[in-house]
Amino acid sequence: MTKEEIIEFCEMKAELESENEDIYEAIIKTLEQEPCEDCISREAVLDLAEKGLLISNGNYESVCKAINDLPSVTPTRKKGKWEFEKTIFDRLGLTVRCPSCRKRWKTYDEIRWKKENRFCPNCGARMAESEE
Q1: Which domain of life is it from (predicted)?
Q2: For the CA atoms of the chain, what is the radius of gyration?
Q3: Cα distance between residue 76 and residue 40, in whole Å
Q4: Domain edges within the chain
Q5: Predicted TM-score of the model (pTM)
Q6: Do residues 20 and 13 lie in contact, with contact meaning Cβ atoms separated by under 8 Å?
Q7: Of 1, 27, 28, 103, whose Cβ has the fewest other Cβ atoms within 10 Å?
Q8: How far apart are CA 117 and CA 83, in angstroms?
Q9: Which sign, positive or negative, has the C-alpha torsion 9, 11, 12, 18?
Q10: Alpha carbons 76 and 18: distance in angstroms, whole number
């Protein structure tokens, strides 16, 4: 099935299933996104820096060429699973941590937290019930 066929299918389903229209519209919007031509891998830039290729000694053009020669990438959303822990300091409740950005919050209800926080409020990582 091509991307265009999936978009067409989702448009049809959105018309038929009005209660799920928002979901299908989000799928269509995602599929219609073009790859980011201006995004490069942070790892690739750090690799250039490690090799000393970003040291210019006043030669700005060589640094620009090295960066511009890197292939473009399509950004991907971070994913993870909420990490819950009860420490001796948590007399009432739990500490919950995002595995991507490591930020911590306090909660009293693990199930409610998972239901209300499908994405990390700090870094935007998508959270799942189990690792995908």
Answers
A1: Bacteria
A2: 22
A3: 12
A4: 3-32, 35-75, 79-127
A5: 0.46
A6: yes
A7: 1
A8: 13
A9: positive
A10: 29
